[in-house]
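User: I'll paste a sequence; please echo it back and then give the predicted structure.

Assistant: Echoing your sequence first, then the prediction.
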Amino acid sequence: MKRITLTIFLFLAVAVAAAAQTNPNVTTSYDAGQDETTIEAAQIPVKSDRTNRFLGVAIAFKGKKLAAKPGVVMFIISSVNAKGHKYPLANELIFVADGKQLGKISILNLDQREFSPTEILETLGTNMPMDLFKKISTSKAPVTFSIAETPFTLDASVLAILVDFEKAITP
């Protein structure tokens, strides 16, 4: 009886430890009508000069099983700003960690819509090359970038989610 109890206890301890390593921010969904699977980490709060700034990363592929690691990751920034604010249509992002440039990409201002009577939600996005995404996600130091006048910081908590996302998109 003691052996069975100990075995059950060890099984539960391992299950709890495994569950603790799974990030609830990374989700997978399958659309049977489109025969398409999406893996994403959405609405990740990002440090900035004010609240209501979020990061999302995603990939989509045909079928239920990812055959090969994708070459790009959809990289989306959502930013709540005062009405009347508008980021430029095209923006260059330079990613820096520990004083070193990791890389740069262009990002487009895709959408602006009312968020509240005094605020708008701006959505910016691009396809980020996988090699740059990997440099960002595996950085040991916080990663910074700016969109126009707005600074953003991907701290350790955000980078941990990006690492989990990168693992999820590795076949």
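The chain has three helices and ten strands. The radius of gyration is 19 Å.
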